[in-house]
Each structure stands twice: as structure tokens, then as C-alpha cells.
Design a protein that fits this description.
Elements (H helix, E strand, L loop, with lengths): L2 E5 L2 E4 L4 E8 L7 E7 L6 E7 L5 E3 L7 E6 L4 E6 L8 E8 L4 E4 L3 E6 L1
Parallel strand pairs: 2-11
Antiparallel strand pairs: 1-3, 3-8, 4-5, 4-9, 5-6, 7-8, 9-10, 9-11
Length: about 120
């Protein structure tokens, strides 16, 4: 069973940068794709970025294109989210997820990112 542990959240001023990391363990060979989601206060959880494990194909939400970069190290079973030019509207709990072609079946505990104006 895949387990995910996130780290790297925190408080940053607008325009600043943060790097989130997510380490996967247990049954990682079954993972087809990994992703970062975020959930702002009082709102739904939405996809931020995803990456396919073998092809490294990436997809980004329009709101983060050009500012965020998702990357993956298969050897270390780790996925990162580099977040630059952060805005107050990026404030949310960020979740790492692992999945197959149909859905995401493993989730991390979440890490808080707060961007002050």
C-alpha cells in the first residue's frame, strides 16, 4: 500500500518561492502518475499539477502555469513542486497524490502554504 509524506510548506511573502516534496513508500512500482492538489479555505480540492511516472508528461492548472514546476525522481520515489512568484491566492493546504490511469488512490496528509500580501 502506497504511503505519501509531504513536507516543505510554510509562510512566505507574495513574490516568494517554496518547494514542496512528497516521498512515496510501499508498492511504488504500481504508481502510474503523481500529482499535487490544493484546497483553499472553504473551497474544493483542485488539481495543481500532475506528472506521469514513466513518460514524465506534465499537466498544470492554468492558474499556476509558468510559475509552478512539478518534477519526479523515480529512484528516490519523490515528487517535488517548485512554486515561484507566489500569490496570496495560492494559499491552501497542498496534498500529494498517487494514482493509476483511472483515479488517485493514495493521498498525503497535506501541508499548509500561506502567502502573505
Amino acid at each position: 500500500q502506497v504511503q505519501l509524506v509531504e513536507s516543505g510548506g510554510g509562510l512566505v511573502q507574495a513574490g516568494g518561492s517554496l518547494r514542496l516534496s512528497c516521498s512515496a513508500s510501499g508498492g511504488t512500482s504500481s504508481i502510474y502518475r503523481m500529482a499535487w492538489f490544493r484546497q483553499p479555505p472553504g473551497k474544493e480540492r483542485d488539481l495543481v499539477a500532475r506528472i506521469r511516472r514513466i513518460t514524465r508528461t506534465t499537466t498544470y492548472a492554468d492558474s499556476v502555469k509558468g510559475r509552478f514546476t512539478i518534477s519526479l525522481d523515480n529512484a528516490e520515489n519523490t515528487v517535488w513542486l517548485q512554486m515561484n512568484s507566489l500569490k496570496p491566492e495560492d494559499t491552501a493546504v497542498y496534498y500529494c497524490a498517487a494514482g493509476n490511469t483511472a483515479n488517485y488512490y493514495a493521498w498525503g496528509q497535506g501541508t499548509q502554504v500561506t502567502v502573505s500580501s
